[in-house]
Structures
1.
Amino acid sequence: MEAIKVGLIGFGTVGSGMAQVLHEQAGRLQKKVGTEIVLKRVADIRIEALPPHLAGIELTRDVQQVLADPGIDIVVELIGGIEPAKSFILAAIANGKHVVTANKALISQHGSEIFAAAHARGVEVGFEASVGGGIPVIKALKEGLVANRILSVMGILNGTANFILSTMTDQGLPFATVLRQAQEKGYAEADPTYDVEGIDTAHKLAILMNLAYGMSIRLDEISIEGISCIEPIDIAFGRDLGYRIKLLAITRNHGDHVEARVHPTLVPEDHMLASINGAYNGINFRGDMVGDVLLYGYGAGKMPTGSAVAADIVDIARNILNGSINRVPALSYRHEHLRPRRITPLEELQGPYYIRISAVDHPGVLSTISGILGKHGISIESVIQKGRNAQGSVPVVMVTHDAREAAVRQALAQIDALDICTARSVKIRILVDDGEEEH
Amino acid sequence: MEAIKVGLIGFGTVGSGMAQVLHEQAGRLQKKVGTEIVLKRVADIRIEALPPHLAGIELTRDVQQVLADPGIDIVVELIGGIEPAKSFILAAIANGKHVVTANKALISQHGSEIFAAAHARGVEVGFEASVGGGIPVIKALKEGLVANRILSVMGILNGTANFILSTMTDQGLPFATVLRQAQEKGYAEADPTYDVEGIDTAHKLAILMNLAYGMSIRLDEISIEGISCIEPIDIAFGRDLGYRIKLLAITRNHGDHVEARVHPTLVPEDHMLASINGAYNGINFRGDMVGDVLLYGYGAGKMPTGSAVAADIVDIARNILNGSINRVPALSYRHEHLRPRRITPLEELQGPYYIRISAVDHPGVLSTISGILGKHGISIESVIQKGRNAQGSVPVVMVTHDAREAAVRQALAQIDALDICTARSVKIRILVDDGEEEH
C-alpha cells in the first residue's frame, strides 16, 4: 500500500514536535498501521530551513503548496489563532484533504462551520490535541465512553494556570510574582490573558461540551472567571478548611439545560482533582454507566501535543487505508442528531461558597454580616476569624451551606457597601462532588 | 442499514450489566453509530428468565444457539474462567463471528491462540473490559498513545486489593479483619486468592505488556507477591516515612529486556498512584513522546464493565458497517511484528527497600544487622527504632539506598537466622519514579 502523505502548516513548537514524533516513531507506526506515514512538505513563513533530521522534507513559504498538493492526504494546521488558520483549513477541506489541528480557539468558535464543510466534502477533521495536550481525552469521550450519558465533566485544562496556582500554594507567593517567574521560565506567555483569565480553559470546555452532549455552544454562553484575583490569604484559609484552589472547567448535565462555567474553585483535598499539580491537566468525566473516569497528563508541550497530533494522523490514515472515512462522527453524535441545549444561567446555580470579608475589628461586625446573609437566605456552615492586624481590619472567612449565586451576589454587594468593610469581599465557589452511586 | 445483532453468553453480574447498558443506551448508540445495536439472544444455564426490561430477547440454555446463529454478528463471552469460555470463543470465531470478552484470565493465558484464530478467520476480538473495568485503558494504549515507545506501565489493577489496603490504612486494622468485612459487603469473593495474591493483577499486567511491547508473555514469567502478608505496623511505618502501600503491577522497558512484576509497593505520598483509594483502579503509562498519562476509574463492577463491553461492541459494529474489520490490530502491533522479549529476572532488579526486622532490645543489635547489610553491599538511608515492647522485642525499620534484590534476599536470610531476631524480617520494595524529563 502506498504511503500516507502528510502536509504541515506551521513549524513552531508543536509543529516541530509533531514532525519529530513522525520521524522518531516512523518504524513503530509502520509496524502498527502497515503503511508508512510520511511528512511530505512543511509550510512556514518564518523559518529558513528544517532541522537536519528532517532532511528530504520540502520546506515552502507558500501554503498553497501544501493545501493544493494532490499528493498530500492529510493537512495538519498548527499555526493557531482564528485567521488565517480557518481559511487554510476550509481550503484544505475544499480540496478533499483530511485535516488535523490542535487549534482550540478555532474549533471552539468556528467548529460548526468547519465540521459542516468536512461532512459535506466527506473528509475528516481530527482535533485530539486541542484539549488535554497528549492525553487521549477526546478519543476516551467519543469512543471509550460511547455508551454513556455524560452527567458531568470537570477539568483542570490549562497547565499554565495550574502551575501558577500550585506554586502560589506551595510557596505562599502572590499571583503577580509567580506569574513573572512562570514567564521567565517560559511556562507563561508574555501576554498571559488567555491562560490566566480562563479563556483557554473555556475554549476547551466548549469542545468537550460539544462532544459530551452533541450540542454546539457559543463562547459567550460560558461564565468565565480567571485566577488573577486569587490571593495567598485565600489559598491559606482554603487549606485550613481542607481545600485546594484550582481553576476548573465545569459542566453538569441537567437534561433540559447544562451548566457551562470556568472559575477558581475550592476542591476538597481528598478529591482526585486536588492532587493534580504543576503544569499537569486532569479531566474527570462522569457517565451514567461507567461512573467517574479521570485522565491525567501533560496538557501542553511540544512532544505531548505532537503525540496527540500523530494519533489523529494514524486514526485518519487507518480510515483512508480501510475506506472507513468518518467511521466515528467528528462530534460524537452523527451530524443530523446535533441539537442546541439551554445553558444554565450562572445566577441560578446553587452550592456552597467560601466568602472572605475584610472588616474593622469591632464587636457586632459578625452579627451585622451574618444578618445580611441570613436575609438573603444564606446560612453559614463555619466561620474563621483569626488574628488582628495593625490597621484594625480583620478577615472574616465563612463557608456557607448551599446558596444561590444570585443571592450571594446581592448579599455581598450589600455587605461591601457597609462602612465596617475595609475592602471588597471575596467569594470562591466550593466544589460539591455529590458522589455518584456505588456501582 | 440493518441492525447489528449481539449474542451474549453468561448472564451473571457483568452480563446483565452489559445487557442493561445496551438497553438503556439504545437510542444514544443509534444516534452515534447510525444503526441499531440489538441484543438478540442470551445463553445461560443458571437462569430461568430475563428481567422484564429485556422482554423480547430470547433466552436459551443451549450455547450453540448463540454460537451458530447466522443472524448474530458479535458474540459476547462473559462467563469467565478458562473452560468452557475458551472453546466457546474459538467456536464463535470458527463460525465467523466477532467476539467481545472481559475474560482476563483467558486472554492473558490463551490470547495468542485466540488472536491467531481470529486473525486467520478475519474477525475481531475486543477485550477492553479485561483491564481497568470501565476505564478505556486498552483503547488509550493502542490508539491514543500509538505514536509512543512505552517506557513503563504502573498500575493499581485490582479494586478488591486496593479496597483492602485502603481500609487497612484508614482504620489500622489487620488484613484478615478487613478481608472478612470486604467479603461480607460483597467486595471480595469467598475465595479471594486471585484478588489478594496478585494473580488477577498479573493477568492484567500480561495483557498490557502484550499491547505495550508487541510481545507475548507467559504468566509464570511474572513475579507475583500478594498483600496477605502486609501488616498494619508496616502501613503505619510506611506512612511515617511518607509512603502509602499499594499493590502495583509494574513493567519497565529496558529495550532488550522488560520488567514484569506484581507486589506490594511503598508509593511516595505525593505520587498520583498514592491518591487512588478504595475500589478504584489507576494505570500510569509513560511514553517517550507523551510523558506520563494516568487513567483512573472503577476497575470492576456491573455497569462500568458493561460500559467497556458496550464500547467494544460499538467499535466492532462500526467496523462491520464500514467494512474495516481489524482496522486496529488486536495486539496493537500487526500480527507479523509480534516478537518475544526477555523478562528481567527479579533478582537483577535494583531499588530501595523498606526492611523491618524484629529483634531483641539489646545494645549492638543495630550494629550487627547493619554490618550484615553492609557486607552485602546494602547501605542504609534511614532507620527508625521506636518504642519497646513488653516481650523485649522491638521493630527496627530501615530504608535502604538502591540495592539488588538478590543481595537483599541473601542478607535478610542471614539476619533471620540470628538469635537476636524474634520474627521473620519483612521487606517491601519502594517505588522510585525516576521522573521523566520535562517536555
Note: Chain B is about 35% helix and 25% strand.
2.
Amino acid sequence: MHPFDTAIALAPIDAHRSRGATTPAYANMVGPFGGTTAAVLLHAALRHPARLGDPIALTVNYASALADGAFEIDARAVRTNRSTQHWVLQLLQGDEVAATATAVFAVRRATWSASEVVAPAELPAPQTLPREDLTHRPPWVHRYDMRFVEGGMPSRFDGTEHPHSQTRVWVRDEPPRAIDFASLAALCDTFFPRVYLRRRKVVPIGTVSLTTYFHADAAMLAAQGDQPVLGSARGVVFRNGYCDQRGEVWSAQRELLASTQQVMYYRE
Amino acid sequence: MHPFDTAIALAPIDAHRSRGATTPAYANMVGPFGGTTAAVLLHAALRHPARLGDPIALTVNYASALADGAFEIDARAVRTNRSTQHWVLQLLQGDEVAATATAVFAVRRATWSASEVVAPAELPAPQTLPREDLTHRPPWVHRYDMRFVEGGMPSRFDGTEHPHSQTRVWVRDEPPRAIDFASLAALCDTFFPRVYLRRRKVVPIGTVSLTTYFHADAAMLAAQGDQPVLGSARGVVFRNGYCDQRGEVWSAQRELLASTQQVMYYRE
C-alpha cells in the first residue's frame, strides 16, 4: 500500500461519518501536511456511496493544527441536482472541529473548450534537474520528488528580501503513484510558503483556507499516470498577517489539471 | 435605505438562524444576482453577536438558482480560536439547501507587508469613460456604475471567438454607497461571464463556486468610501462545461482590497 493511500484511508462508521488517522509518513513541523488533510476530506466524498460525478471545486479551511492520531470526518451531500452535487464536510478530533470543507461534484459533458492561461514553454525536463535537497525537511517533503526550475526553498535564510515568489517545479509522489483526484488535491498544497521565498526569513506560518478547481477528468488523469506534474505558484499580496497565492498544476502534456489558491497566516 | 442594504437585510430567528428575502432591485435573469447571495451569507456572520474580527476568506457554493422571495440562513461559528474564527453557513428555501458557504474571520495585527501583484498603471480615470450601456440588462446591473477600460460586455454576439477575456473596469454601487465587507463581497461577483467575452455567444451559464480573500481592513475601506474600485478579471481554463476566472479588486489608492476566483458552468 502506498503511504499516500494509508494517509487518506477511511473506515466507515455510519452513513455520514468515517474514521481516519494521521500517519508519520506525512508529518509536518506541527501536525500533518495540509495537503493530506485536503485529500482525505475530498476522499470522504469520493468514496461515499451517494457520490455523483467528479470533483469540480474543493475548499478546505484549517481551523487548527491537527493532533497526531485519529480523526473523524462528517461528509454530507446536502444537495444533489441532475448533474451536480454539493458536499459539506468537517474533520473532527474529539468534540473539536479541526477543519471545515465544501466540495462541488459534477458529471461533465463534452463542450467547447479553451485554455486562456498557458503552460510555461521550454522548461528543462525533470530528469535533467537535481532532486530537492531533503536535509532538515519534515517527513511529508520526502513523500514527493520535487525538481525546481525556479523558486525552490531558499538555501539561505539571511533576511534578504526577494522581489517575487514565482515557483516552477516538477513534482510527483515518491514512490511514484498514478495520479487521482485525491493526490491532485494534495499536490496543490505542496508549494512552499511564498513568504519564505519573499522574505528569506523563517516566521510562523500556516494555511488558513485552500481552494482548488479541478479541470482534469478521469481520462486526463489516466494519461498522466505517475509522471511528474508541472506546478507553478506565486504570491498575490502579503498584508498584516495574511497572504495569498495562486497556483496551477499542469500535466506532462501541458494540460491544466487544476488551478489552486490559498490564504496563509504569517507572523511578524 | 440603500437597495443593497435592503438586499442583505436579515431578521434574527434564533441563535443560528435569520430570515431574509430576495429583492427585485438585484434580480438577475433567473433568481437574484449571485453577488448579493454571497454578501448576505457573509452578512449573517458579520452581524452575528459571536463574530470575532474581520473576514479573511469566503467561499460560496451555489447549489441552485434561488427562487424569488424569502430565505433563511443558518450561520454557525464552529471553531473560535484566540484570533481566528471559522464559520459554516447554509442558505435555505423551504427544506432545500440553495447555497452553502464557509468563512474565516480573524483579528489582524500589523506585520511586514508587500504586494506582489501590482495594480495596472496609467488607466483612464472613471469619469473620462462612458457608463456601461444598461439596455436589455437585468436589474442588478443597474445597481452598479461600471466604466470599462477593456473587456466590457460584447456589443455583438456574432460567435467570433476572442483570444482573451481580460477585463478592467471601474465600478461602484449605484447610487454611491460607502464600501464595506459585504458590498466588497458582492463587487467580486460583478465581472460578466468570461465565456461571453471569449465566445461572443450567449450560452446558459451560472456560478458554481466563488472564493474571495479579503485584504482590506476597516481603515482601507474607510479611506475608499464610495469612490469607484478598479476591478480586473480574466479566464483561466474553459473545459467541458466548467471554466474558472481570477480577479482583483483595487482601491482608488491602488491597494488590493480583495482577490477573487470562481468556477462557472456553461453549456455547449
Note: The first helix of chain A runs from residue 3 to 7.
3.
Amino acid sequence: MAQETEVREEEMQREYRNVGKPVTRIEGAGKVTGETIYADDMQLPRMLHAKVLGSPYAHARIKSIDGSAARQHPGVEAVFTPADLPEYKKNFSNRRGVIFPDEEVLFYGQPVAAVLASDPHVAEEALALIKVEYEALPPVVDPITAMEESSPLVRSPLGDVDRSEERGHVTVGVEQEEAEGKPSNIASQMNFKRGDVEAGFEQADVVVEHTWRSAVVHQSYIEPHSTVADYDASGELSVWTSTQAPFYIRDELSQTLGLPENKIRVTATEVGGGFGGKIYLQELMVAALAMAVRRPVKYIMSRKEDMLAATPAPQAVIDLKTSMTRDGKLTALKSRVVYDSGAFPGAPMLPGCLLVGGYYKCENLDIQGYEVLTNKVSVGALRAPGAHNVTFAIESHMDMMARELGLDPIEVRLKNAVEEGDPLPSGQPYPRIGLKQCLEAIAESEVWGRRNRERGTGNRGVGLAVGGWLGGLQPASAIVCLNSDGTINVTVGSADITGTNTSFAQITAEVLNVPLEMVNVTTGDTRTAPYAGMSAGSKTTYTVGRAVKLAAEDARQQMLEIAAKRFEAAPKELEMADGVVRLNGSDEKTLTFQRLGRLSTNFAAPFPAVVGRGAITTRKMAPGFTAQAAEVEVDTDTGEVTVLGFAVAQDAGFAINPLSVEGQMQGGASQGLGIALSEEMMYDSEGRLLNGNLLDYRMPTTRDLPPIEAIIVEVPSEEGPYGARIVGEPSIVAGAAAVGNAIADAIGVHLTDAPFTPERVLRALGKL
Amino acid sequence: MAQETEVREEEMQREYRNVGKPVTRIEGAGKVTGETIYADDMQLPRMLHAKVLGSPYAHARIKSIDGSAARQHPGVEAVFTPADLPEYKKNFSNRRGVIFPDEEVLFYGQPVAAVLASDPHVAEEALALIKVEYEALPPVVDPITAMEESSPLVRSPLGDVDRSEERGHVTVGVEQEEAEGKPSNIASQMNFKRGDVEAGFEQADVVVEHTWRSAVVHQSYIEPHSTVADYDASGELSVWTSTQAPFYIRDELSQTLGLPENKIRVTATEVGGGFGGKIYLQELMVAALAMAVRRPVKYIMSRKEDMLAATPAPQAVIDLKTSMTRDGKLTALKSRVVYDSGAFPGAPMLPGCLLVGGYYKCENLDIQGYEVLTNKVSVGALRAPGAHNVTFAIESHMDMMARELGLDPIEVRLKNAVEEGDPLPSGQPYPRIGLKQCLEAIAESEVWGRRNRERGTGNRGVGLAVGGWLGGLQPASAIVCLNSDGTINVTVGSADITGTNTSFAQITAEVLNVPLEMVNVTTGDTRTAPYAGMSAGSKTTYTVGRAVKLAAEDARQQMLEIAAKRFEAAPKELEMADGVVRLNGSDEKTLTFQRLGRLSTNFAAPFPAVVGRGAITTRKMAPGFTAQAAEVEVDTDTGEVTVLGFAVAQDAGFAINPLSVEGQMQGGASQGLGIALSEEMMYDSEGRLLNGNLLDYRMPTTRDLPPIEAIIVEVPSEEGPYGARIVGEPSIVAGAAAVGNAIADAIGVHLTDAPFTPERVLRALGKL
C-alpha cells in the first residue's frame, strides 16, 4: 500500500469513494490468463504473412536486388524489393518515412526487402533466395568519432526532419537547430545559456568535471512489434497494431500513403509492453504491402528482428562540469550533451538538455546539445527518453560535490532543488512541482535509513538520486454513456498501456458516485473513438482523464435533468448516490440509474439517450519528480553489484489508483536498475549488433531485483483530474544515478560508464 | 432516377448539395467484391464450432437425452443437452428465453442439444450420436383448428410474455390482452371497435365478405444466422453476430445471463440480409456455450437449420366484411384477424389489426385479433410484419366493392384514404401522411397507364393496392468528430442494413457543407457506440438520422467557435463551405478544416478536440404509405401468372438518398411479388417442414421479376431529418394485393389464398 505524505490531506481522501483507492486493472485478468487477443492472435480470411530481409552491412550501397528466385519459391505470394513497392511519400530523413532504402543502407539489419507467403515460415525461408548485391561503405559507429570533422559521413544529407513523434513524449515550446550548411554527422544541436558559467566556477569552492556514458538499451517489451493491415474494395485501410499511438499512426499513414484519415481505421490492439517503443514503426510497410496485394498482411517481428530494427533508446556521452560553494549552493553548470541518434534523427537531445540543468536552481548555465548520427539502428523513446542519461551525470555530480564538501546529499539537493516558478534551462518557469517533497519522503524511506548503518561494512553502501520528467501535452476527449440497465460505458481513444482505463473507470465512478463495477472503459479504434493523443509522455491520465471527468460530469447533468423533469424539481435539488437519483431528503422521489436508462432507451422513451461528452486541451505541464535510494553490495573480488534494497518516492500529484501508481514506480525502477546494472546493446566496429537476443542482452529478472519500496508523494497538479500529474516515466530516470552513488558509498569510487558491469567495477577498483 | 412530385419544391432541392442526391452505398464495394468480413469469416484463437440437433417431432416430450457417445467422438470438445446448460433465466413463454426445452418440444427442428468441436463437420457428424428418447404428442398445425375449444393444446401454458422485440417494429401505445383463464391455444387477442358495424352494413349499397389466407414465408436472407461469442477471464462477454439489433441483444443477454450491460460487447457484423428476421435468436445459446466452455464458439446455421428454426413470417387467416355506398363511401368494416404465431407468442397481430382498418376513414369498425399458437416454428418479423396479410384482404375488398359499384379503384381509394388527423382503429390520430399523394402518383405510373389498354386482352390485367406501415420509435444518438486532416468521422450504434450509414454521411456532409467523400460513418459496437435502437421498424434514418444531424450541427458550432476565436469575431459572422471557415466576405480570414483539425489535435494544441454529440428521442410516428400497381398476364392453361410490370409510389417524406430509397422500394416490391406468386413454407399434417431449402422454397429470381418503376413521393414528416420518414418497410406491403387485383382484372376472379400458384389459379378458373 502507498504511504501517504502530509500533502494529501486526510479530509480530502475521505470524500472520495473511488479515486485514490487501490484497484486491480480491469483488463488484467485476460492478460494473466492468456486470453487477451494480441495482434498476433488475429486471423483474417486470405491473410498473408510478411518476413523482412535485413541488411548484413551497417553502411552500404545496394547495387541490385533480385527477388525472382524467391518469387518462385512454393508458397510465396509476393516479393517486394524497393522497386516493387507501391508509391508512398518517402522521407529518407525520418526512419518512419522509409520502408526500404532506395539505395543506401544505413544500419545493420535495416529492412531492404520483404516476402509475403501464406505461412510465415515459408516467407522466412524464401528470404534466403533474395539476391542482394551490396557495395560496402565505411560505417561510423561511435558518436564522438562521428562528430569529428574528419569522420566519414554516416549517410547522404538529411532533408526535412519531422519531429512530431518526439514531441509526443515531451511537449515544450522549444526548437532545436536542424543541421545546416556543410554536411556533417550532427543532425541537430541546441544551446541553453544563462548567466556566466566561468564566473560561476570561479565563485565556487569545489568544481567537478567528468564524462558520463550510458549504453544503448532496448525497451524489451514481451510482445515484439506486431501489425496486421487490410485494404478493402471501398478504399478503406484497416490496421491492427500493437501501438501506444493509434491516432498518430492514422495521421502518419494518411500523409504517407495519401489516404484521407476518414478512410483509415487504426485499432490499437492490447499492447504487450511499449515503454515508448511502440509508437509507429512497421505499420507503413505492412499497410503498403496490404494495399499492393489487396489481401490482409500480418507482420510479427521475431525477437531478433525487433532488437535489430526497432527503435531502442540511445547511448549518450555527457561532459559535465559543475561547481558548488562550501555551503552547498550550485554556482555553475556546463555540459556537452551528445546523443547517438543512430542512422536517422530522433534522439531525445531536447529533454536531455532541459533536464541536465533542470533539477536545480543555478544562475550560470551553458548546455550544448548534439544529436549525432551513426550507422546504428535509429533510436526511439524508452520511458522518459534521454532523461536517465543526463540524470546519471548531474546526480553523480551532486553526490561528488557534497562528498567533497562534507555535506549531506539530501540537504544539498533540498537547498538547490527547483520549485514552482523556477526557470527551466529554456527559461520557461516550472508550474507547481514536488521535487522537494520527494526528497523529504525518500529521507524517510527504510533504504535511506540504512545509509549510515551500512557505510563501509562489507562493501555495502546506500545512495540516492533524483529524477524528473516534463511530460507531453495533447488534446483529449471522451464519451460516457448510460446503458439501459443503469451501468456506464466510457469510450476513449487512448491506448491503455499502464492501467489508464482503470483510472478512467475510477474517475467516472467517482463523478457518478457509484461502485466501480458499474463502469467499464473501452479504447475504441480511430473510427469510433473520440480523439486522444498518443499514450506517451506520461500524459494519458493527465489529459484523457480530465476529458473523462468532464464527460462523466456531462452525463451526470443529463441524468439529473431527466430526474428533475420527472420530479418537477430543479437539478440542483437532487442528489446522486449508489445508482439512485433522489430529490433531496425524499424517500419517494427516487429514480434508479436503471430506470433512467430505460427512460432514455426504451421504445418510445420520453428522453434522449444519455451521452456525456468531454473534450479538453491543456498547455500547462505537470512535471513529475522522483527521488530514489539504492542499497548495494559490491563483491570486490568478482565485481558483481547486488542491489539489496531500493526505494522510490514519486510525486503523482494525486494517485487516482495507488496500486497502479506503485506498479508504475516499481516497473520503472526495475528498468532503471537494468540500465544501471546490465542492459547494453553491444555493437562491433562494423556496427553489427552482437547481442540481439534476450539471453545475451541481459534484462534483470525478478531474481536480480530487490524489493522496491514505493512512496507516493502527492503535490496536486493545477489541471489534472483530482490533481493527478504525470506518473509513468519519472520512475526510470534516477536508477543508474542512485545505484552509482550507492556503489561510490560502498567502494569510494564513482563509475562513469553505465551499466555497472563486473568488468567496469573491477576496472574502477584498479583490479583489471 | 426518382421522379419527383410537386410535394418537394424545386426551390428546396436546390439548397442542398448532399441530401436528396443519389449516391452509392459507402459499404457497397466490399460487398460486391466479396471482401466484406461477415461473422462466418471470423477466426479466434481456440475457437470451437457449434452444431445443433433439431427435434424430429413437432410436439413431443423428451424422456431422456444421452450425449455420452457423442462426447467420445474424436474431435468433439463438449456436448450440451438441456441438463448440461449453464444457468440462465429461462422463459418458456418466449422463443428467445429458451435455449433447449427442458422437456416439451414444440416444433419440428427445435434445437434440443448441441455439439462443440474444433471442426464444424465433426460437430455435425457427432449429432447423430446423441440419443434422444421422445414421447410423441399430438401436434396442432392449423391455426383455425387450434382455436377450436376441442383442439389439443399446443403446449404447456404460457407465463409472462415479453413483447419487446415486436415493439421494435411498430411502436404504438396499444396493448394486447394476454391469454388468461382456461388454457387455450390463443396466446393473446385484441379488439378495436368504433361506431356500429351492423348499422354500417345496413346503410351500404354493397357488402363484401371473404376469408383471405396468406402463407408462412421466410426472410431468406443470403447469409443465414451467424454468431461468434467469447467470454473472457475478466467476465466480459463479446458477441459478434449478424444482427439488426446489437443493443437489444446486449440488453436481452444481460437480463438472461445475469451479466451487467457494461460487461457485454455486441458487435453487429455486416448483415447479409435481415428483413426483420435478424433481431435476436441463437445469440443466447452461443453466448451460454462460450461461457460454459470458456472458449470462443461459432455457430453458423446451415440453410436448412435456418429454415427450420429461425423465425419466418406468419401465415394469417383474415375474415373480412366491408361495405360501401353507391358513391364509394366505406361504411363499415368487420374483421377477424388470425395470425399463426407458431409455438411461441410473437405474431404481429397488433399491426395487423391497426392496418386492416387503418388505410381508410370508416365510422364503423369491429376488428378482432387473435394470436394463435401452433406446433410450428415461432414467427418473427419480415419487413412490415403482418401488414401484407391484412392488406391483401382490405385491398382486395376495395377493388371488389369498386368493381361491383362500377367505380374507379383509385377514385374510391382517394375518397376514403386517411389523412392527417384521422384516427387509427386504436383512436390515435395520424400525423402528417402521404397516402393520397401516393395514390395520385401511382395514377401517373406507366403500369397504371396500361390499365384500360390491357384489360381483357390476352388475359392481361392491371391492378393496384395501397399499403402502409406505422414504424417504430426509439431514442438514438450519434457522435461526429473532426479528424486531424479535416475529414469527418461519424459513429452510430445502429446496424446498417439498408444503406443508412450512407444517408448519415450525406446528412453530415450537408450540415458541414462539404463534399460527401469528406465524411465516413461507422457502426460501433455496444461498448464504443452511442446508443441506438434496433434497425427495424423503418426507424433508423428517422431517428438516428436526426441524432446525426444534431451531432453534426454541434460539431459545426464547435468549429465555428474555434475560428471565431482565431478571427476575434462572433461565430455568426462566419460561413462554412467546402472545408473552409471564412469570416464573411473575407479572403484572408479563412481556416481550413485541416487547420481546425490540427489546432484541436496537435501537441499542445490550443483547442479541445471537436466532438459533436447528438441525442434525440421522438414519440411521434412518421408512417409511410405506398401505392403499387401490377400488370400481369395469366396463362389460363397452366395457371402461371407472369408479372409484366410493377410500379411502386411511396412517400419517403424526403428521400435523403433517392438511390437507396428506390433500392428499398424495388427490394420490398420484389419480396411482395414473392409473397404474391411463389413463396410458401409448407408443412405436413405432422408439422414437418416439407421445403426447407431454396430449391423447393421458391423465391423469385431476377428472371421472375419485371422492371420495377419507383416513384418517390415526398410529404415531409414533422420530425425526421430534412422531412425524411420511414422507408424500408412499406414497399413489401401491397404486392400480393396489387397482383391479386391485377389477376382479377385479367381473369375476373379474385384469388383468396396467396401465393397465387398455378394450382390455385387453375382452381379459381374451375379447371382443377
Note: Chain A has 22 helices and 27 strands.
